[in-house]
Design brief:
A hairpin with a 5-residue loop joins strand 3 and strand 4. The relative contact order is 0.07. Helix 18 runs antiparallel to helix 19. The protein has 490 residues and is α+β, with helices and mostly antiparallel strands. A 6-stranded antiparallel sheet has the order 8-7-6-11-10-9. Strands 2-1-5-4-3 form a 5-stranded antiparallel sheet, sandwiched between helices. The radius of gyration is 28 Å and the shape is flat. It is built from 19 helices and 11 strands. The protein has 3 domains: 104 residues, Beta-Lactamase, CATH 3.30.450; 183 residues, Beta-Lactamase, CATH 3.30.450; 167 residues, Hypothetical protein af1432.
Length: 490
């Protein structure tokens, strides 16, 4: 039978798929929908009545230009299976990510779909957090490498334009005697006139940010509600359409204003504003470090806090991917820090230990949703994939120099005292101390939390289980220490 010949259709054998979590659909050789289950309705953003009997190309007029359609066409014409992860644009502007498999069937093509939008968005958020951490680190290096704050400001402005997606940025310094703001460094402007700009406090977005000490947004400089007198001509000459101004404050004192500019109307999120304000803090530190080198240690502490805030945000993004363990990451990180202090771990090492605890499951970003969220028992092959997440963590974090000392927990927290763990089968004291401490806390938290496969265990039950695991799964000395201290932490 050729690919254009439509066989007699008997779809009763597909009805067993109606209740599956994965989307299932059968598309005939004439591209008409012959069967869709309930999950496929959700994925398609259409009802069965809208889909069944309708041609895919009429339901989604632009689908023929997509990689999905190309895969389905190959399956229809050559009867070859296909696999694809793709972003699908729906009519009206919405979009979602799907993992799709195409298999030839007598009626045409069977398509299995899994909505991976949440995973992709979490990965995107993680990558954005990584880029921002790298930006903060680059700024840190610039601040530490020179006492010329204008050089450091150039780095801040460069990172700001790249990470915030704006066309230009400029830093103004306050001249207290003149109650005015004078340009000190800029990037992205075409005319050198911008570097000779002086703005009075209270004038325009920059002056208002200085006066009110808070971020000022002007999404569209040409909007009817924007006073023309408040818009600097140089911005309009440069073709700028949206600006954001944030005050630079160091040690409670206003020292300048940081302005971002776009050649299109500005659309921002709370996250965008938060990172802009973090960069403004970095710019303020650069200026303050250049003017008062003896205060550099304080500025460095603020930078460390920025790192920790970024990593905590990263860990929250990880928790969003797995609702079964929501808030688990911060709980185990805090408890591991307390246990480490009780064990006599030095404060300098505890900093890295906490980072490692916050990022202990970062490698699971590389595990497919179908395995990570599977409710049934994993197959041997799926277990092997899952056990790769410490290796993925090592690959992701080891290129970042300041996170290398935090690798012990993400890489080794599944090693076991008796050597039966993974990924390297380390045993006894060959397992890093941080990983041994974390392993006890991780098991305790899993037992004391409600999960899909068990109810919350009592303190007594969880304590008995830890004692049972001591000497095999867990370091017995750490278990003893933990059980002596846990009453104070519960």
């Amino acid at each position: 039978m050729g690919p254009q010949e439509q066989p007699a259709v008997n779809l009763d054998r597909y009805l067993i798929l109606d209740g599956l979590f994965e989307g299932c659909q059968v598309i005939g050789f004439d591209w008409r929908y012959l069967y869709v289950n309930r999950a496929a309705e959700r994925h398609a953003r259409k009802t069965r009545d809208e889909l069944l009997g309708a041609a895919m190309t009429s339901v989604y007029p632009d689908i023929e230009q997509t990689a999905l359609f190309a895969m389905l066409r190959r399956c229809m014409e050559t009867r070859a299976t296909g696999h694809l992860e793709t972003e699908f644009p729906f009519p009206g502007g919405a979009d979602a990510w799907f993992e799709l498999r195409a298999e030839p069937v007598p009626e045409g093509t069977f398509v299995l779909s899994l909505d991976i939008t949440a995973r992709r968005r979490a990965e995107r958020a993680i990558e954005q957090q990584l880029e921002r951490v790298r930006s903060l680190r680059a700024i840190d290096v610039a601040i530490l490498s020179t006492t010329d704050f204008r050089f450091a400001l150039k780095t801040v402005l460069d990172e700001a334009t790249k990470r915030l997606g704006v066309d230009a940025a400029i830093a103004f310094l306050l001249n207290p005697g003149m109650t005015s703001l004078e340009s000190a460094a800029s990037i992205g402007f075409r005319s050198p006139a911008v570097n000779r700009t002086t703005i009075r406090v209270g004038e325009g977005a920059v002056g208002q940010a200085a006066l009110r000490r808070r971020t000022v947004l002007v999404p569209n400089l040409l909007a009817s509600d924007v006073t023309r007198l408040q818009v600097r001509p140089v911005l309009l000459d440069e073709g700028m359409r949206g600006v954001a101004a944030v005050p630079l404050i160091a040690k409670g004192q206003l020292i300048g204003v940081f302005e971002m500019a776009c050649r299109q109307p500005l659309t921002v999120s709370d996250d965008w504003i938060g990172f802009l304000e973090a960069l403004a803090g970095q710019a303020a530190m650069a200026i303050d470090a250049g003017k008062s080198f003896e205060d550099l240690q304080s500025a460095h502490l603020e930078l460390a806090l920025a790192y920790e805030t970024t990593i905590e945000g990263w860990s929250r993004a990880l928790d969003l991917r797995d609702q079964d363990t929501a808030n688990h990451t911060l709980r185990v990180a805090n408890m591991t820090v307390e246990l480490a202090r009780s064990a006599g771990v030095a404060d300098a090492d505890i900093v890295h230990l906490r980072r490692g605890a916050l990022l202990h499951d970062i490698g699971k970003m590389a595990i497919p949703d179908a395995i990570l969220h599977k409710r049934e028992k994993l197959t041997d092959e799926e277990v092997a994939v899952m056990r790769q997440h410490p290796v993925h963590a090592h690959s992701l974090l080891s290129p970042i120099a300041y996170l290398r000392p935090a690798l012990d927990i993400p890489y080794c927290h599944h090693e076991r005292w008796d050597g039966t763990g993974y990924p390297r089968g380390l045993a006894g004291e060959a397992i890093p101390v941080a990983a041994r401490l974390f392993a006890v806390v991780d098991v305790w938290d899993a037992l004391r939390s409600r999960r899909p496969y068990h109810e919350e265990w009592s303190v007594e039950q969880a304590s008995a289980e830890l004692r049972k695991l001591a000497g095999t799964h867990l370091d017995p000395t750490v278990v003893d220490l933990f059980l002596r201290k846990v009453d104070n932490w519960e």
